[in-house]
Amino acid sequence: MRAQFVLSEIGVGLRRNLTMTFAVVVSVALSLALFGGALLMREQVSTMKDYWYDKVNVSIFLCSKSDVTSTPKCAKGAVTAEQKKQIEDDLHKMDVVDTVTYESADQAYKHYQDQFGDSPMASNITPDQMQESFRVKLHDPKKYKVVATAFAGRDGVQSVQDQRSILDNLFQLMNGMNVAALFVMALMLIIALMLIVNTVRVSAFSRRRETGIMRLVGASGFYIQMPFIMEAAFAGLIGGVLACVMLLAGRYFLIDGGLELQSKLNLIDFIGWDAVFTKLPLVLAIGLLMPAVAALFALRKYLKV
Predict the structure, then answer these.
(1) What is the rounded distance in angstroms from the CA atom of residue 147 to the CA atom of residue 160?
(2) If both were cysteines, with which of 83, 135, 208, 253 could 258 make a disulfide (CB 3.0 to 4.6 Å apart)?
(3) C-alpha pair distances (Å), 160 with each of 87, 92, 136
(4) What stretches pass through the bilayer (predicted)?
């Protein structure tokens, strides 16, 4: 009987405040979708870092004849065979180094033509303008400075470059987008909480006579508050379900279908469906508990008799 009464009161409350309930559902859905999207974006950035940082190299560019007059670091002349041998031996002795690959000027020219052969400048580049280099793969890419400190400024070395620094700009941009999404999510969450509180207040005010009678006949505070809390929790749960649908649809249309980023950007290691599914229970739990807790605090004042 009590359960039937609570359910009937929930239905009455939802019908009386249908417009505000709809606004709560939409705001909760959008805020939780942004929350889930921010979590997935953070995981995507982490996945991309692991994928790309494992592939980046430290490049030690050697002085060529064309660098002698144009680059102060190569003023002593082009790199000699002895200097190349010494650099390679020293690299193999370093604990942080995984592999060392030598690239000649001809190989560098061939790679350049393969990558940029269609560009207008490609016809103006000759093999003698390309630099010899050592491509160094590290056990831990974060220890780039160990190599840079050891070889920057050495005779025969024109520069030491870390490919990781190029990727850092991309990851900083993605992290900035993630922070922006979290900011919008927080704003939407505040709006959702305000709507929930106002909806509960209106519902409590419209039924103040019934709740007053229930209090006078000895009904417990929890029994009186339960329909209002359940109304808010039900609206929040619907919003959470819609947020989950949006996350699933976003993953499908952005990566698998629609834009088909998975096939167009095959160099990016996208997060899988398992990453999305693991976030859904958290989104549903927040969608259910957040409105219920907000309603509980709002009812402390408005259900006093």
Answers:
(1) 8
(2) 253
(3) 12, 16, 10
(4) 21-41, 179-200, 232-255, 275-299
Q: Is 62 helix (H, G, I), strand (E, B) or coil?
A: strand
Ramachandran angles phi, psi of 128, nearest 5°: -75, -10
Q: Are residues 16 and 206 in contact, defined by beta-carbon separation less than 8 angstroms?
A: yes
Which residues have a Cβ under 8 Å from the Cβ of 146 and sit 6 or more positions away?
94, 96
For residue 33, what are its two tokens? 């979708």
Contact 240, 280 (CB under 8 A): no
Give the count of beta carbons closer than 10 Å to the beta carbon of residue 126.
10
Instruction: Give tens-digit pLDDT for 231-281.
Output: 888 888 998 999 999 999 888 887 776 555 555 555 566 777 888 899 899
The C-alpha atoms of residue 21 and residue 235 are separated, in whole angstroms, by 6
Q: What are phi and psi of 99, to 5 degrees?
A: -135, 155
- Which alpha helices (DSSP H) does the chain contain, by range? 2-16, 18-53, 67-70, 81-93, 105-116, 144-151, 164-206, 208-216, 221-251, 261-264, 273-302
Please give the Cα distance from 61 to 134 (Å, whole number).
7
pLDDT at 305 over 50: no
The predicted pLDDT at position 245 comes to: 94
Nearest residue to 232 via CA among 189, 293, 190: 293
